[in-house]
Design brief:
392 residues; alpha/beta; 11-stranded mixed sheet
Length: 392
């Protein structure tokens, strides 16, 4: 039987989440899917997990252990390289997917779709206490009413939009992480750049690169993938305000990240700076340099000044460097700063109201307490079951 979908999971020292994903995969009977686990955990730490896999004894679960410590990008590269499916989706070990995903992939294959981006549900694991919401959102699966609507998008229009945000937002870029992409498209990215993820942040680097080769691309309003935020993951660190650090001290980054850092991008590690750096690096390695001149440094600096307040000196240094390279419009930094703060205030006001009522939104908010991702699937699959797939 042909493997139509590879669910790829690069992992390291996070078996407490991963076991739930494996159990859920094992409960799905399809012979057209495989689960590829590429493990770079500390030596000896995987003993109990290997015993767990032996007890499940599922030949569709492909487990690879890499003893030498590698960067997050390398771990992702190794994982995707093992995939045999026509389509690939990459998940974090704290994420989960819907059992209905395979039915949709079969339809997309018949319609020769290159890449698909489903709307995401979000699950905050109980070990995460978000900065502003604490226990209110801890252990909560959050989604909304779904329509099943499909939109066709020209991927080549998207890098311009990302450049306008200074590379700080992925918007609706095609992607293998939390998205679905044909393996032969991913292979073209690898042949061009030497990596499926040509930048220090795998998700942004891959998403930018795919725009060059993806032709038939859709977004779909169905949460076929749920993004998990566990304390040990980047998403969890971001939720509690700990997603920061000095570049040289971040072990998960490629070794040459510090020495090759783009002058003008603030030199520290946060979601904003690593996305910006990865977008620029991906454009260079993919020979898409025509987009780089449109990079909005003013927006990047305003975003960093809003969210990364502990690194003001780093941001000011970057501004001084960029002023010497090209004329910055300082007043635009202030303009974007006010705009971003306004959006941030509105978002949190809306989020607080949605915890009580959905009257501020035309989509009904759904919040459910769950102890793990297995419980999440019960609710999520029930929502998706109501949507027909006739028009995919």
């Amino acid at each position: 039987m042909k493997t139509i979908l590879s669910i790829v999971v690069p992992t390291k020292n996070r078996y407490c989440y991963l076991e739930f994903l494996v159990k859920y995969f094992h409960s799905i009977s399809s012979s057209e899917i495989e689960l590829v686990l590429h493990d770079n955990s500390d030596l000896g730490a995987n003993k109990d997990f290997v015993n767990f896999l032996d007890s499940i004894n599922d030949p569709r679960v492909k487990y690879y252990y890499h003893e030498e410590s590698v960067s997050q990008t390398e771990n992702c590269d190794y994982a995707v390289s093992k995939a045999l499916g026509e389509y690939v989706t990459m998940l974090g070990d704290d994420d989960i997917f819907s059992k209905y995903l395979i039915k949709y992939v079969e339809q997309w294959s018949r319609n020769e779709i290159d890449a698909i981006l489903p709307v995401k549900g979000v699950y905050i694991w109980p070990d995460v206490k978000p900065r502003l919401y604490k226990d209110t959102l801890s252990g909560v699966f959050r989604t909304s009413t779904i329509t099943g609507d499909i939109n066709y998008i020209n991927p080549l229009t998207l890098p311009d939009l990302v450049m306008k945000t200074g590379g700080t937002e992925m918007l609706n870029l095609p992607r293998v992480y939390h998205g679905i992409v044909r393996k032969n498209i991913l292979d073209q990215v690898y042949q061009e750049s030497g990596s499926y993820f040509p930048g220090p942040s795998p998700d942004m680097a891959n998403a930018i690169a795919l725009c060059k080769y993806v032709k038939k691309y859709i977004t779909i309003d169905i949460p076929l993938i749920v993004s998990g935020q566990g304390y040990l993951s980047a998403g969890g660190k971001g939720a509690i305000g700990e997603h920061f650090g000095e570049i040289a001290k971040i072990d998960q980054l490629p070794k040459d990240t510090s020495s090759n850092w783009t002058k003008g991008v603030p030199f520290y590690w946060s979601g904003n700076t690593i996305y910006a750096e990865s977008a620029l690096k991906s454009l260079k390695k993919m020979n898409m340099k025509e987009f780089i001149s449109k990079f909005n440094y003013e927006y990047l600096y305003a975003t960093c000044l809003t969210f990364d307040t502990n690194y003001k000196s780093h941001i000011k240094n970057a501004i001084e460097i960029q002023k010497k390279k090209q004329g910055l419009k300082i007043y635009m930094i202030y303009y974007y700063f006010i705009k971003i703060w306004s959006q941030r205030i509105y978002y949190h006001l809306k989020s607080n109201m949605l915890l009580i009522s959905s009257w501020l939104s035309n989509r009904e908010a759904i919040l459910v307490k769950c102890s793990n991702t297995l419980e999440v699937t019960k609710y999520n699959d029930n929502y998706i079951k109501k949507i027909k797939i006739d028009n995919t």
